[in-house]
Amino acid sequence: MHFAIATRDELWLRGRLIEQRLSHGEAFHDGETIVATDARNDALVAQCDAAMDELRRCVIPELRMRLVAEARLDGMTSTITASVGGHSIVTTPEHFERDVQLVWSAATAVAAFPHREPALPSLPLLWQNGTAAVLLHEAAGHAEEHGQTPILPPWLIVDNPLTLRRATFRDVPLPRMTNLVARQRGAPFELPNPRVEVLLVDSGHYEPLTEVVTLRIAAADLVEGDASRRLPPFDFVRHRGAIAFLGATGDPLRYPGVICSREGQELVVGSHAPVMVTA
Amino acid sequence: MIYRKRGHTIRWEHGTRIEVTESGVAYEEGERFICEPAHASGMECGDRSHRFDSLRSGSVPRESGGSAAEKAVTAVTALQTAVVERWIAVEGIAEHEYGERTWSEHTQRLHVALTHKRERALIDQASFDTTHIQRIAAALARCEPEREAPPRLRLAENVTAALLPTLLELAPPNVRVIQTAGGIDGKGEDIVEAAKEWPNWYRPSYRIRPVKAPLNLRLECEVTELDPSRPIAIALLAPVTGLTLRVLVEDGARAYPATVRVTRIDAVSNERTWYPYGAGSFGAEMML
Is residue A227 a part of any domain in this protein? Predict the structure, then answer.
């Protein structure tokens, strides 16, 4: 089995190019042995160069931006990780404008809360903007990777194909998520009041030994009646069996991509989920 | 100034053997850091080619290192008393050039994660000796429920090595954290003895911008005699968080998890072993 890759990545700070990397290589997989070198495939490098030209057009000085153009024998990906105020999103040139608004509003609103608030009351959570995909990435996707059966209600269908993927030519391919799409079919839905509306998630983790899901919620609003106020970032920590899926509505919404790290290999995973309520 | 590196590694990871050969260059232009494979930029050619060509002979010695790693892999995967959740063995040789200076290094790394019920022991070491891993596996298998940490406890060298980077800022006044002289840093300078204002550069890969950092830390204490009858923490059960450690304690025939907050260090042995934590750390048995 032959694998080849070329990657260009750049780090931009305050509109200035700070770091610039080129990487390329190939790997030959024969049974339980992989032989890899940094051989150059000119066609893949040329694809990266063209994609990087497009990525650079997105650079804006207010954000810390990492641009990554990656060409493999089976396709090309372009991703942007944009960070501000300690929050970040992973996006593409196509969705850049909309996604940056999301992280920008989260960062500026949270800046108004310099001190952490006491622990939240245990209110129902309304997962907006496709954020439920991150919850399901951890609670169902990683559980499945570890051979654990997802614990989901019958109205929630999670399409989460695992395929052999690797981050670089130096890595062992592992069964990994590629694109998680959660759909509801005939789900109940009632808007809880009061509630916490989750808008943006910074990071997530799943511990297979304890089956505990941990999410760092970057932006969320506490909604009571017509009143709403932004909450400071907080951690959502729950055993996956203790997450009550109360309902969902609408079609899956695209959440800005998730960078999933496992065995030291970072891979972008597509994430889509409807608006969902949990307790 | 241009940094060049050429390396060859053999890695065993979950039953797969991976051989990687690569070379790269890195340099800085003003505030910009640039790196790429050596042959991508033509950096192997020109007036420096003769020097770089002289580094081409390096590869991992299969007959010696390869078999040592394979023996370690066999020993780890044969453990009967705990589940081997993760194991990675790496042996590599690297040849470096920065300015006029060239140097080489030979590395061995073994990472193992052992699990038993809801506990996970984390092991990172720079040798393929599995003696201590077998001890941890046996203790993990007879692990009792979590208990309070004993008031007087020893920490094994693999545990203290992970703690040293944290102690840089938080060490109690009766101990000193020191950078140990020896070897060459990421910009071709000798690593010198230092206790602050770290003068040396850490460059773990040609793809990473070098930064000034404390290298090869060790801990010194006036008292070096330890009481061998004390219970001993033989493994980390979670990554170190500040001065708090979740560890596997061995107390005679008993073994149990405990959470330890390091507030006082009574003694540190002067027998040390190097571990791959941070930019290098010499672990030494310690008594709290």
Answer: yes
